[in-house]
Amino acid sequence: MKIICVTASLPHGADEAFVIPEINQLRRCGHEVLVVPRSPRGCIMHGADLVSFARREALCSTPVLKAAGAAMLAAPGRTAAILGLLFGSRSPAVAIKNLAVIPKALWLADVAARWKADHIHCHWAGTTATMSMLASRISGVPWSLTAHRWDIVENNLLAAKVRSASFVRFISEDGLRMAREIGIGLAGNARVLHMGVTIPGIVGRRYGCRPVLLCPARLVEVKGHRFLLETWRILRSRGVEGELWLAGQGELRASLESLSEALGLAGSVKFLGAVPHHELLKIYEDAAVYAVVLPSIDLGHGNHEGIPVALLEAMSYGIPVVATPTGGTSELVVPGTGLLAPPADPVAMADRIQDLLCDGNLAKQLGDSGRRRVIEAFDIVRVTAELVNEFETSTLRPVSAVPEYA
User: What pTM was estimated for this model as a whole?
Assistant: First the structure.
């Protein structure tokens, strides 16, 4: 198949590395993939290998505006019709965001037609989905979307997108529940299909004399780093030796560094900054990490974890994990596959981590069972095969064309 994968910014940026295994597996299976970022901005940190098969025109680049202008001149009525699809935006701010992607939607429709795409699939139910829906309606190429978390709560024409898409993929049962709670009717085309990870071959454990705990997460409030630093202070006060590594960049870095200093942790906490995806996996491969910790909290209004790929990847390497049961995390970390502590509870988190550090057999057991869990339910080979089956089925369904009012 010829599949267009619409992203927010990948191969640019640092926030969509979780999409890369899926794209790579599609290509390994012989499918042609064209990556189209809605807004290709920022450095290329994780997606360098995708650049050769990506179309990275900006929202208002000359090629985009030319293609949009040509489409409008050739079929002004059709352009007016797609504008009508956006009238249901729930607020002026959302409507403006949708209007901003119309030129690129017209351009994408032209790209899809010229490339003879079989399917358009986008990640995120926000404006990437707006762009993909309009391009599908114009070109007649079937489309689908993967909804994650915040984009469900944003509810940017979500009901219209569900009706238009050949299928809607939710990455967790929690995401599907959220959609139902906001009243989105899911008429048989909703699927819960997790994000998958590449399963490494033989994994080993070679711990140093000072155990290393790693938290691979953006430095933003929902990840709960301030509670993790307090947890680490408690562990240090109990005589626990080791290091805490924070892998990620974000708006809270300066305040977290100050908090680390204030808690007297500067000598045992390392801020690694944004770590390229392949380097993070190399850390796991080298077996230098004793455990991965993700102390996420729930900020309300859908601002919580989905099923964290950061935990999936660590578990695939047999690394035990300690996390909080927020969002979809408990769908992954079921009993016996990792340890869960209540969110925003540094003492409980410290107790769970100390259990791991003091019991090598427990750490090995959880690492082994966690790896089996990922192999059984989150292997990228199986996940991608299910996704392709949905793509292929979608080609049998007609796409509603935008009427021509020339």
Answer: 0.91
